[in-house]
Design brief:
Two copies of one chain form a homodimer. The first copy, chain A, is mainly alpha-helical and 198 residues long. Chain A is 73% helix and 3% strand. Chain A is built from nine helices and two strands, in the order αααααααβααβ. Chain A has helices at residues 6-24, 31-38, 42-48, 52-65, 81-98, 100-114, 120-145, 153-174, 177-192; strands at 147-149, 195-197. The first copy, chain A, has a two-stranded antiparallel sheet with strand order 1-2. The first copy, chain A, is elongated. The first copy, chain A, starts with 5 loop residues before the first helix and ends with a strand. Chain A binds a DNA duplex (18 and 18 nucleotides) through residues 1-4, 6, 30-32, 40-47, 50-52.
Chain lengths: 198, 198
DNA sequence: GTCTATACACCGATAGAC
DNA sequence: GTCTATCGGTGTATAGAC
């Protein structure tokens, strides 16, 4: 095998680990499965990382940092806030349907992190990041729709995250698109009542 | 050790397994951890169950069957539907705060079941049960508040489950009571708009 | 730095004494 | 029926040749 800088090797292993967790779940994300996915030897793993725990920590950190704001499409100009929010939620739903395994992996990583005291802060940081992204989307939506939030945006963001998580969890189990759309509709309805026209 | 009927032994092991999953997570619920919790020997385990998988299946089945309808308190008479629903959601939140580990265990078991094709139907059955319970609660709430659902109750139940799941997941991570109450408020608001006065 | 080979702990499951 | 002892397999991690 060629010589590869440790930083590249770490990144490759993290990406391989994400694929394994996405496809097979955290329980199957053993060091052996991860190095096989990355096409490396077991020893290379322990050259790049001290332990499996260290890799999982870096996986969570990396994957959380790379979460992107669900960009609100610009063709929403002129719609009311409720419609704008619903369009955003439906966009998220499309994203979920396109890559359900990724969202399932995120949920599993959160649950996993919650179970160990040392990793608990990673789960909290994950949700702080979600809150930041949700807050920005909410500000943008209000701007687009000519509204202003009457509840602190951080609180509205918490509600949006809960609704999104709930939509994700139930759809991953039931795969019921109609119910998912009803959730998006109801969520947008409730959220829009936390603002008023500007 | 005394002679114990196999059925009792199975039940005791299932309860021990639930305690282990609740306290330490599914990943730590090994046969050895479970028999230690139940105060049995390892061999007793395999006398009662053919395999660990069989126990986990029975654990999920049992725990789902024992889920109770969140009984609506009868002192809600005379309130509007929105208030009745919000009171019910806050009751659920109290339950969550009283025993967060149980709800965390339920989430983990669902995720775990989703990951294996043989167990996938158990997760689906779990949500079907939730839907049944939620539907009954919604019927009762509408009855109490003198309203009638204008959306099919099965669909409203799906939305309620999603909102409840979302509240659970976000509160388990953030432990933010204020946001949880805001979620309950927003959820009740959205759900109440799926009905009209009778 | 990268590999193969292996150490050592723990897993699920079973054998066989009582 | 219940136990102790142990098997075979797999997990993380490391030793040592190259």
């Amino acid at each position: 095998m060629a010589r590869i800088p440790a930083s590249e090797r770490r990144a490759a292993l993290v990406q391989a680990a994400l694929r394994v967790v996405s496809q097979r779940g955290i329980a199957h994300a053993t060091t052996r499965a991860i190095v096989a996915e990355a096409g490396m030897s077991l020893a290379s793993f322990h050259y790049a990382f001290d332990s499996r725990d260290e890799l999982i920590d870096e996986l969570i950190t990396t994957v959380v940092a790379s979460e992107q704001e669900a960009v609100l499409p610009s063709d929403l100009q002129g719609l009311g806030l409720r419609e704008t929010l619903e369009a955003g939620l439906l966009r998220y739903f499309d994203h979920l349907r396109a890559d359900p395994e990724h969202e399932q992996a995120m949920l599993e990583l959160t649950q996993y992190a919650l179970r160990s005291p040392e990793r608990h802060p990673l789960a909290v940081a994950q949700y702080a990041r979600y809150s930041e992204l949700a807050g920005r989307s909410l500000e943008a939506a209000a701007e687009l729709a000519g509204a202003v939030w009457t509840t602190p945006v951080a609180q509205v963001a918490g509600v949006l995250i809960a609704f999104t998580d709930g939509l994700t969890l139930t759809w991953l189990v039931t795969r019921d698109d109609d119910v998912a759309r009803a959730i998006a509709h109801a969520a947008a309805d409730a959220l829009s009542r936390m603002a008023e026209p500007r």
